[in-house]
Amino acid sequence: MLYPAYEARMLRRMSRDGSLALPQHVGVMLDGNRRWARAVGRDTAHGHQAGAANIEPLLGWCDEVGIQVVTLWLLSTDNLNRPAPELDPLLEIIADAVDSLADQRRWRLHPVGALDLLPDATASRLKAAAEATADVDGMLVNVAVGYGGRREITDAVRSLLHEHAAKGTSLEQLAQLIDVEHIADHLYTKGQPDPDLVIRTSGEQRLGGFLLWQSARSEFYFCEAYWPDFRRVDFLRAIRAYARRERRFGS
């Protein structure tokens, strides 16, 4: 019963202190659904469903503090190798969750990942959600499904090569002009600010391939709670920890 008062106090302090630097873009690794399910004696699908139910509250918390971009990692390329009895229900849960977010028209949804690796039905639903919310004037939400950082960089380089091949640029010319910005312009998140803060739940302290390129200068916050148990107070603590840090941007 004390948590709502504690959360309200944290929000008031952050809103009063204009000197606090709040993140513009937050990446969230929604980790721990399966372990949460085992801990409560339920099957894996129940864990994924509980995790999906926590997405909308998270986006509401992000709106509260004025975050502009959120990237949610829902399914990695490695996860696509899971057995069909687990993967198929998970893909359905993800698609249903994205459909629900789109129906609310509160956020602009943008799928990021290798959609060509997904079943056609899943990819079509993700694309439809993006189209349905393209005109929404709200927070941008990147939905990372079938996402892997190495795959993203590979796709970016491939796209860059195709672009310059179409222009007739030789390999020698491309080697002379290519730089960091050229590759960044071909990432799934092109045109977006890099994440200021990356949050990972479940106690794991590793990136696992999440936003490898974009997170080079990000701050990281690792939370012990499994994703279905991640609360508003946990989120606010992550934001407060970020605001208290002196960012060195890799130096």
UniProtKB/TrEMBL annotation:
Tell me its cofactors: Mg(2+)
> Which parts of the chain span the membrane according to its record?
none
Annotated active site? D31, N79 (proton acceptor)
| UniProt keywords, alphabetically | Magnesium, Metal-binding, Transferase
Q: What is its EC number?
A: 2.5.1.-
Record has Transcription as a keyword: no
What name does the UniProt record give this protein? Isoprenyl transferase
